[in-house]
Specification:
The chain is an alpha/beta fold. The chain has 2 domains: 1-20 and 118-250, no CATH class; 37-108, no CATH class. The chain is built from 7 helices and 14 strands. Strands 1, 2, 3, 4, 5, 6, 7, 9, 11, 12, 13 and 14 form a 12-stranded mixed β-sheet that branches. A two-stranded parallel ribbon has the order 8-10.
């Protein structure tokens, strides 16, 4: 049986998660199942790292973060690092070039990067300045929640509603369809924005029952028909010991 870490091409390199509906959950799972040296960080402000991550934390200013992480990496296997708080309860994100310096200096086998924000929503499309993906990224994982499918497009579940409308053709107040999700995943202005030459493996998360799986499979198949930029889509659920529910291939 395939493991999510291999499906997402996440044994080595720099893996960036973008989108909404499970970025942190996906990254933290990858850190937990990886057996070698892992760094976890973000290019955007992020909530404090959870204790369940079991990572050694390095929180420092811009002038000392590289040296501090490098030193910690000689003693600890998993390092979660970020800049000092930008506001209460949130750490600051790192510049992509700083992450590249840290990876080269600390010798991580894998660096996991949260590359945009979504305010805990289930679906989003990027603004002009988003996402902040390092040029050296090896894999980009666009995430969307299956639970958005069938729900009216609103601020309750969506971030950047105007951008979602522009990219997918969805309309505020009307149900989001599998086709809308497919357009988002396959769009150069949506989930494929700023991915560069990285391998792309979309994740449709929160596939927690048969109905959600059916909707997610439809969205994945439609997306695969719209682009050749990725060859498979991973369906996942955080309610399972092994989050990988299914792989939908072209």
């Amino acid at each position: 049986m395939s493991e999510l870490i291999d499906v997402l091409n996440a044994r080595t390199g720099t893996v960036c998660a973008v989108g909404a509906g499970g970025k942190k959950t996906t990254l933290y799972h990858l850190a937990g199942v990886h057996s070698e040296r892992v760094g976890i960080t973000s290019t955007v402000p992020l909530a404090h790292f959870p204790r369940a991550l079991n990572a050694h934390e390095v929180i420092a200013g811009p002038g000392e973060i590289v040296d501090r992480v490098t030193e910690a990496a000689s003693k600890h296997r998993v390092i979660a690092f970020a800049l000092s708080d930008v506001k209460k309860g949130r750490y600051g994100g790192l510049e992509p070039q700083t992450i590249a310096k840290i990876q080269a200096s600390a010798g991580f086998d894998l660096v996991l990067v949260k590359a945009d924000g979504a305010r805990m929503r289930w679906i989003k499309a990027p603004q002009d300045e988003e996402p902040l993906i390092p040029e050296h990224a090896t894999t980009v994982v666009p995430v969307v929640s299956a639970k958005a499918i069938g729900r009216p497009l609103s601020a309750d579940i969506a971030h950047r509603i105007e951008r979602i409308e522009a990219v997918t053709g969805a309309e505020r107040g009307k149900p989001i369809t599998p086709e809308h999700v497919a357009r988002l995943l396959a769009s150069e202005s949506g989930a494929l924005k700023n991915v560069g030459t990285a391998k792309v493996v979309p994740v449709i998360n929160m596939v927690d029952d048969d109905d959600l799986e059916s909707a997610a499979v439809e969205a994945a198949r439609l997306a695969l028909n719209l682009t050749d930029r990725f060859k498979h889509v991973a369906l996942t659920s955080g309610h399972r010991p092994d989050p990988l529910v299914r792989i939908v291939e072209s």
